[in-house]
Each structure stands twice: as structure tokens, then as C-alpha cells.
Design a protein that fits this description.
With 377 residues, the chain is an alpha/beta fold. It folds into two domains: 117 residues, Rossmann fold; 246 residues, no CATH class. The chain has an eight-stranded mixed beta sheet, sandwiched between helices. Strand 12 and strand 13 form a beta hairpin. Helix 5 crosses helix 6 and helix 10 crosses helix 11. The longest helix is centred in the C-terminal third of the chain and has 24 residues.
């Protein structure tokens, strides 16, 4: 299956090194291997494979390779200066693609800067737009399928629901058991797994690490570290409240969502909100990575309890207010209120099921299928 980043990766490789990150099993290796077939003597080397590790550390790969793909090299000590040296000393015309399933700028901050040498791209699970373009499905069928299977390629393309469920069970346990060890200690795995399990039932609500810390008898600072690790491994992502003062927004409680909607524990409304969050994050990060736009994803909540699920910004300006519902087409009070406070922002109430679109004042009430299909990625 072709992915939405294929053409962008090809174009960017002609200009700079490309660093491609994203959740494990989201399709990075498949994308890379498809590219390998297009270049003479191309070579793929994974730091997790002992034989490949030796080649990487001794730099004995094929110097005539038209394309080199390095996977998981962020696990190498001092990988940044190593990669800088490789890029600066590569053969003329040789292209370099680096992939990894952990955010390569989150941990291991030491080393020389790679500034000016690379483009950063983040690969996301399959979205409504991508599924429609690749399969010819209608937007409604795409939403139904993705809510059931999630957007990771293997369960999404599986022949049966049982195969998808088996993949998900192994995926989550493997992430917590194996990948977390890259950033944590063995004795923390049990606590980390319990924390991750608790997050599955707290999707969409402002997260109180202090409250969870009391429940788990763990300090909030430790839970903050665990949350950072789960984010670095692309297991969860956080959405923080909108505020022009970024430092102030950072201090307020984030909301947590899973990259795989299938991991969410909750009713249909909570799963739909997680699905919307994933779709909006992909939309935002495509614009950041591929178009260079200064856009962001947030939520809005005031001291009096008024809340809107999501808000999009460009620079310090709110561009969109988004409230998601399953079937309730009655104008959402907080959405209407904030639409009045930010008159230049598009206000959308997006429903999973809606018989027909309507406008009420400044509110656009729309069905999710068509609304999601219109996102940029």
C-alpha cells in the first residue's frame, strides 16, 4: 500500500537527509523498502540487527549505494555527531533516509547539531483521507472501518477482526515490555505498564498526574517522566490547552490520546474523540513537516468549566474550534460562546452520525465522514 508521505520523502531526499519517525509498525520500514527498489545498490541497515550494527559502527556499507536507509540508529551512543559525519562525508549524489520509532530529538540531546542537514517527517496511521484515496472507499465506509480496526496498516488491512485484535494485544504488551527499556529501568516496567493501562481509560479528560500519583503511590514527577517516555515512543500524545502564553499553557493539565484508537477503553463517544484527535494531529503535523506552517493542536477549557474538544492555531491566532459528538446536533454552548470570542475562527460541531449538514449562527454542524475527508492528510 502506498502511503501519503511517499512522494514527499522522494522529493525531500533530493535536497537533504530525511529523518522519518513515527509509531512502531506504522509503516516506516515498508515505505523505506519500497524506496530501496528505486535506487541502484540501495542498502537498508537496522541498528537492532547485530550484523547490521557491525556494518554501521564500522561504516562498511556499500559506498556506491544510491540510497542508504538507517533504522533505529538513535539507540547508538553519540548518534548525532556520527550521523553528521556520515552525511557530510557521503559519496556525491548518495541519498540518506533515517528512520526510528522513538522521537529522535526527545532523548539523548547531547552531540553536534544536525541543523540544516535534514528534513523531519512524521508518519501517522491511516486516516479517512488516505484510506479513501488508496482504496476508493466512501468517507462513511472509511470512518466505520477505521473506528473498528484503527489506522495501523496491519490491523487495518487484516482479513478478519480476530486477526486485528490479536495484533493489538501483542502490539501493546510488546511496546511496554520491550521498547520502554530503551529509556527506563527493568524494575519500572510493571509500574509503567499499570500507568499506561490507566491512561487507556482517561482519554479525553484533563490529566491530573497528582491524582494518579496518589492512586499509584508514585510521585507526580515520576509519572511525568513516564508520560514523556510514552510520548517519545509514539504510544500516546498530549493535547494542551490553548493560551497565547505558551509557558502558562504548559502548566495546565494536558489531555492524553493514543495513536491507536483501538487501545482506548471507553464508550463510543470517547473512542470517536480519540479518532478525531489522531486525525487532527496528522493534519497539523503534515502542515508543520511538509509545508513549514506554524500550526498547533490544542483544546480550550475555562475556569467556569466551559470546554471545546479541540482548537487549531496558526501562530498566535486561533483558526478552528472543533467539538465532536456522536449524534447530538444541538448547538454546543461552549462552542457557540468561544465562536463569539474568536470571530475569525471557523467553528465546527462534527458528528459521527448526522442526517444533513446545517449552520446555526456561526456554528457549522457537519457529518464527520466528509469533514475528515477534507483534512490535509
Amino acid at each position: 500500500m502506498q502511503r501519503y508521505l511517499d512522494a514527499r520523502v522522494r522529493a525531500d531526499l533530493k535536497k537533504k537527509m530525511v529523518i522519518l519517525t513515527g509509531p512502531r509498525q506504522v509503516g516506516k520500514t515498508t515505505l523505506s523498502r519500497q524506496l530501496l527498489t528505486e535506487f541502484k545498490d540501495a542498502q537498508y541497515l537496522n541498528y537492532d540487527v547485530p550484523e547490521h550494527r557491525g556494518v554501521l559502527e564500522s561504516r562498511t556499507w556499500n559506498k556506491k549505494a544510491g540510497l542508504l536507509v538507517f533504522d533505529e540508529i538513535h539507540k547508538m551512543s553519540q548518534w548525532k555527531p556520527w550521523l553528521k559525519g556520515v552525511f557530510d562525508g557521503r559519496a556525491a549524489g548518495q541519498l540518506l533516509l533515517v528512520t526510528g520509532s522513538a522521537r529522535m530529538d526527545t532523548f539523548r540531546q547531547t552531540g553536534e547539531s544536525l541543523a540544516g542537514r535534514y528534513y523531519k517527517l512524521r508518519l501517522h496511521p491511516i486516516s479517512v483521507r488516505e484510506w479513501c484515496e488508496q482504496t476508493g472507499a466512501t468517507p462513511e465506509d472509511a470512518v466505520t472501518h477505521l473506528l473498528k480496526r484503527g489506522g495501523f496498516p496491519e490491523p487495518c488491512l487484516a482479513d478478519t477482526d480476530e486477526e486485528a485484535d490479536r495484533w493489538r494485544t501483542g502490539y501493546f504488551s510488546g511496546l511496554v515490555r520491550e521498547d520502554v527499556l530503551e529509556f527506563s529501568r527493568l524494575q519500572e516496567i510493571t509500574t509503567m505498564r499499570l500507568f499506561a493501562e490507566l491512561l487507556r481509560s482517561r482519554v479525553g479528560s484533563p490529566l491530573s498526574l497528582a491524582s494518579m500519583g496518589r492512586d499509584l503511590a508514585i510521585s507526580p514527577n515520576t509519572l511525568k517522566k513516564y508520560l514523556d517516555i510514552l510520548e517519545a515512543l509514539f504510544i500516546v500524545f498530549t493535547v494542551r490547552p490553548w493560551h497565547r502564553n505558551i509557558a502558562r499553557a504548559t502548566l495546565q493539565a494536558p489531555k492524553v490520546y493514543f495513536y491507536d484508537t483501538g487501545l482506548v477503553r471507553g464508550d463510543a463517544g470517547v473512542r470517536f474523540e480519540n479518532f478525531m484527535a489522531c486525525s487532527l494531529l496528522k493534519h497539523v503535523e503534515w502542515q508543520q513537516d511538509a509545508l513549514g506552517k506554524e500550526v498547533g493542536l490544542h483544546y480550550i477549557r475555562t475556569k467556569d468549566g466551559a470546554e471545546v474538544d479541540f482548537a487549531l492555531s496558526q501562530g498566535d491566532i486561533l483558526t478552528d474550534l472543533v467539538e465532536c459528538k456522536l449524534t447530538d446536533a444541538r448547538p454546543h454552548g461552549a462552542l457557540a460562546r468561544f465562536a463569539g470570542e474568536w470571530p475569525h475562527a471557523r467553528a465546527s460541531q462534527v458528528l459521527r452520525d448526522l442526517s444533513h449538514a446545517m449552520d446555526t449562527g456561526r456554528l457549522e454542524i457537519r457529518e464527520a465522514a466528509g469533514w475528515l475527508r477534507a483534512l490535509s492528510a
